[in-house]
Amino acid sequence: FCNYWQAVKPLLQERTKRKIQVLQGSGKDELLKIMDYSSLPHFCRKEGSGSTRHSSNGTADNCFSLDHTYHQQLYTYIKHQATHKETNSPIKHGSVHVEFPEPDPDDTAIALTIESELHKLADQNGLCKSLNGLKVNGV
C-alpha cells in the first residue's frame, strides 16, 4: 500500500492529504488506541498480520497470494482440463457468407437529387471547386 500511496499522494489536494493517515505495518497498535480489540477488522486480529502473513501451519493465509489453497486448486483443475483437451491446434470454422441488402432505388434518386441541387447552389455562389467530387451517401 505504501507504494500506491506514494504514487497517489502528489495527485491529491492538500486538504485531502491532511484527512488521510497511513498506518505502519498492519496498523493494529494504532487502531487499538482508538477502538476495542473486538471491533478490529478480521485481518488485523491475526498475529503477525501484514502484507506477507502466514498462518501457524505454514500455509499462506493471504487470499490474494498465489500460494493460497483456492489458487492452487484452481491451477490444478485448469491443468487437468488442459490435458484432456482433444486438439492443440486452432479449430477451422470455414468461410462465412454475408449478404448486403441492395440500396433502395428511391433513396438513390433522393441522394442524386440532393447532390445535383448542391452542385447548382455551388455554381451560383462560385463554389464550384470546393464541392467538386461531393457525393451523398457514396452515390
TrEMBL record:
**Superkingdom, taxonomy of origin:** Eukaryota
Q: Which InterPro entries match?
A: CRAL-TRIO_dom_sf
- The protein in question is named CRAL-TRIO domain-containing protein
Recorded source organism is Gossypium raimondii
